[in-house]
Design brief:
2 copies of one chain form a homodimer. By secondary structure, chain A is α/β, with parallel strands linked by helices. Chain A folds into 2 domains: 292 residues, Aminopeptidase, CATH 3.40.630.10; 114 residues, Alpha-Beta Plaits (2-Layer Sandwich), CATH 3.30.70. Chain A is 35% helix and 20% strand. A 6-stranded mixed beta sheet of chain A has the order 1-2-4-3-5-14, with helices on both faces. In chain A, strand 1 and strand 2 form a beta hairpin. Chain A is elongated, with a radius of gyration of 23 Å. Chain A starts with 9 loop residues before the first helix and ends with a helix.
């Protein structure tokens, strides 16, 4: 057959996504499949069974990452691989992560049933604990695999109930013996939902991120003076929450003030003593800044520090900052990004060049070799919520782009 | 002797305040004497002993209110009485409440040692659970005594550990047999720290509140849309915390916008899901408005509703209000307010007419008969905190004003 006529089976992809969505299904139509939970174990067992059905060689490494390998004609060449994660947010959706795993499974099934022999070996992967919502941080097992995080440190992470990552991994039977250690690869692809509203709003099917935005996290602490609200006149108050309110609005407006290409968010706030009739004497809040332009993001923070000092001074509230975390933006391999655009066009799908605002396992792969991602539209841009949704047609289209990119890369010698 | 020469013993008043400050003393220099706790019991036992030393007739009523009675020449006439509360906030100060009890005790001791016979009987009172910080609401036992709250409902109140008010009252041995039921009185006085910065800032010794401000409590609920912050552009977000920030600033500015005489505060806020990288989809915050002018306070709320709707509309976040509690302002008896000013002047103390921003047991007394309060300066305006402080001289001055007002009222026939 002409390989260019090859297509995934959309119905089968849908069925495999629906089957997975039953594991940890929530009443609100979403999924709760926290990493290393019983639900994660059931989903992993199902996944491993599906890999064995199509004669993939299954390996579980010491971080619980699951690989399924399909030999190449030239089996010693570095492979092409693809995957994502089976775990979900608490009350998460039915597509985040699992689409990239079931999409890659559908590619493997399509290669299998059509007896497609690629030059290079092809692998599918499920990365353990991408979400980081049970055990922080996120993307921990791809990080260990990539040599960027320490295995024993990862093992020692605890959840809210004091349960330990390493023990939970063993409990569910997925502490494998293979070293969690990167091997050379030729290309890594990850199919994922966009998790934002852009593709839907412009009516495009395939999103092609040129890379992942930089990510800067800050923590701000404001000190006020607690007093009974009734007897304390407005003049001379040191209300930490009023100071925080001005700062939150400064964060909201900073992307426009810096000329655009950036998002800035206050997601978390704690107020003390948080009592209806006491003037707040302490506020902590977080700032999350993301941009393709690292310098622009840093300039925004410099601007915010000026804004914050002004608001602090006006309210007579001392302020303290912590520069908690900074990750630079990461461009994906231009060659793969170009190939994605070419394959989308050849398949007749509209596509859009964009950026990824969220981190993914692909971030770590991108540090080691050529990596790229394929996005499909998120309905209403919603993600990390039970109503997260995408159309079956878009899932199928994304898997077809993945299929043809993997074949192309796997036949490069 | 000429009664106008009579003065309290400032050293003795200081000693009794210092003695009480040891019971529940905190490392930070404050006091934690929660109502019906072991500390409250020890302080009550000490107090009752002091009443018996000067031959007062002690009565404990079924709410645990402690009365000490000194007969009048015309003992059937409605008495004059004064007091406040022994209980404190968690990590509260050494003056809030206890000054009014020890001040009245010092008045009784002065009358006793000088063999002053008043026409009317004179009483001292300790009201149970003024603070309401262990068992809500505040001022519960004076409220029951005044017939405004139900005794059995008060008994059924529980603290955070599930302990029950009625059982705790019995446990510490202060569930008395006298009915908690108001009897006619001629005048009620309450000496208290100001709990605000006004007297200190204008350099006056005695504050004479014309009454207690109205108190309006509201609850505001904002609904946003949760999304991953990275992939969601600023345009089109529905960020409930940004909407709340605008509303908090509207509350801060509303007193000035309404022309002054008012305080408005957001003391409490909850943000959901309160995660660093998720756009907030729900905020609840409280609004506390106080003014001498009930209509002005209601107009301020009407203005705030317009401001809130505007901020909600701008951020695309539906909003919901609850009008939780409204208490009208309460003017004290003009006759007593005038007498206070006259006695302060006669004693050579500077004084200032003002209002009380906080509620007190005097609020309930004021519903039944003539009541008034005497304020002394709070250093730095601080209260409900361990650093709460007042000078011993000001305590003595306040007690002298209380002494002469009580004598004058108690000799009216």
């Amino acid at each position: 057959m002409d390989l260019s006529d090859l297509r995934v089976n959309g119905e089968r992809l849908r069925a495999s996504l629906e089957e997975m969505a039953k594991i940890g299904a929530t009443p609100g139509g979403g999924v709760q499949r926290l990493t290393l939970s019983d639900e994660d174990k059931r989903a992993r067992d199902l996944f491993v069974g599906r890999l064995e059905e199509i004669d993939l060689e299954v390996t579980v490494d010491e971080m619980g990452n699951i690989f399924g390998r399909r030999p190449g004609k030239n089996d010693e060449l570095p492979p092409v691989f693809s995957g994502s994660h089976i775990d979900s947010q608490p009350k998460g959706g039915r597509f985040d992560g699992i689409l990239g795993v079931m999409g890659a499974l559908e590619v493997m099934r399509t290669l299998h049933e059509n007896n497609v022999q690629t030059e290079r070996p092809v692998l599918i992967v499920d990365w353990t604990n991408e979400e980081g919502s049970r055990f922080a941080p996120a993307m921990v097992a791809s990080g260990v695999w990539a040599g960027k995080l320490d295995r024993d440190w990862a093992y020692s992470r605890t959840d809210r109930d004091g349960k330990v990552f390493g023990e939970e991994l063993e409990r569910i039977g997925y502490k494998g013996s293979a070293p969690a250690k990167a091997w050379p690869f030729h290309a890594y692809y990850e199919l994922h939902i966009e998790q934002g509203p852009v593709l839907e709003s412009i009516g495009k099917t395939i999103g092609i991120p040129k890379g992942i935005l930089c990510l800067h996290w800050y923590d701000v602490y404001i000190e006020g003076k607690a007093n009974q609200v009734g007897p304390t006149p407005m003049e001379g108050r040191n209300d930490a929450l009023c100071a925080a309110a001005e700062m939150i609005l400064a964060v909201q407006s900073v992307p426009a003030r810096m000329g655009g290409n950036m998002v800035a968010t206050v997601g978390e706030i704690q107020n003390y003593p948080n009592s209806r009739n006491i003037i707040p004497d302490g506020v902590h809040f977080t700032v999350d800044i993301r941009s393709w332009d690292d310098h622009l993001a840093i300039n925004a923070w410099e601007q915010l520090k000026i804004d914050f000092q002004a608001a602090a001074g006006k309210n007579g509230c001392p302020i303290r900052f912590e520069e908690t975390w900074r990750v630079e933006h990461t461009p994906f391999a231009e060659k793969l990004v170009g190939l994605l655009a070419q394959k989308a066009e050849a398949l007749g799908y509209s596509s859009h060049h964009m950026v990824s605002g969220a981190g993914h396992d692909a971030s770590y792969m991108n540090m080691l070799g050529d990596a790229a991602m394929i996005f499909i539209p998120s309905i209403g841009g919603r993600s990390h919520v039970e109503v997260e949704n995408s159309t079956w047609e878009d899932c199928e289209s994304g898997a077809n782009v993945l299929l043809h990119c993997m074949i192309e890369s796997a036949n490069e010698v």
